[in-house]
Amino acid sequence: HTLHSLITVLGTWALVQAQPCSCHTLALAWTFSYLLFFRALSLLGLPTPTPFTNAVQLLLTLKLVSLASDVQDLHLAQRKEMASGFSKTPALGLLPDVPSLMETLSYSYCYVGIMTGAPGPCC
């Protein structure tokens, strides 16, 4: 059952790395599509996930869409900064950089964040 959450995290990370300018929409489509597949496993004749796995998958879906939104905001702020021609101080509430795979995995599986609803990396 761990593979379901790992596939969701890795898929979202790949989308964020490949398309930071539109990753929010892509991550939304990816995570909710996988969630639909995940919830339909029993209809497909595959083993039904445990309630804990279900809870983790639901929370990861929300966390990863939020992370992708933060990355897209960072990308738009960087694009706006380049268009203005001068560098300002970094805007408050933005990620410092696009998260690496290790940062994405750490954010996704951090106990405090996954089971207690801690805010995203921007807060």
What do these coordinates show?
- This protein is mainly α and 123 residues long.
- It is 67% helix and 0% strand.
- It is built from 5 helices and no strands.
- It is elongated, with a radius of gyration of 16 Å.
- The mean pLDDT is 82.
Cα shape: elongated
User: Major sheet: size, sense and barrel closure?
Assistant: none
- Average pLDDT taken over every residue: 82
Name the helicity range: 55-70%
Per DSSP, the total helix count is 5
Q: How many whole angstroms does the radius of gyration measure?
A: 16 Å
| Total count of strands | 0
Provide the structure class: mainly alpha
Order of helices and strands: HHHHH
Proportion of strand residues: under 5%
Task: Report how far apart the termini are.
Answer: 30 Å
Model regions low in confidence, pLDDT < 50 over at least 5 residues: none
Family: Belongs to the membrane-bound acyltransferase family.
Keywords: Signal
GO biological process, one term: lipid modification
Pathway: Lipid metabolism
Question: Helices and strands in order, then pairings?
Answer:
Layout: H1 2-18, H2 23-39, H3 51-84, H4 101-109, H5 111-116
Helix pairs in contact: 1-2, 1-3, 2-3
Keywords:
123 residues; mainly alpha; 5 helices; LPLAT_7/PORCN-like; lysophospholipid acyltransferase activity; Membrane bound O-acyltransferase domain containing 7; signal; O-acyltransferase activity
What is shown here, in short?
This protein has 123 residues and is an all-alpha fold. It has five helices and no strands. 67% of the residues lie in helices and 0% in strands.
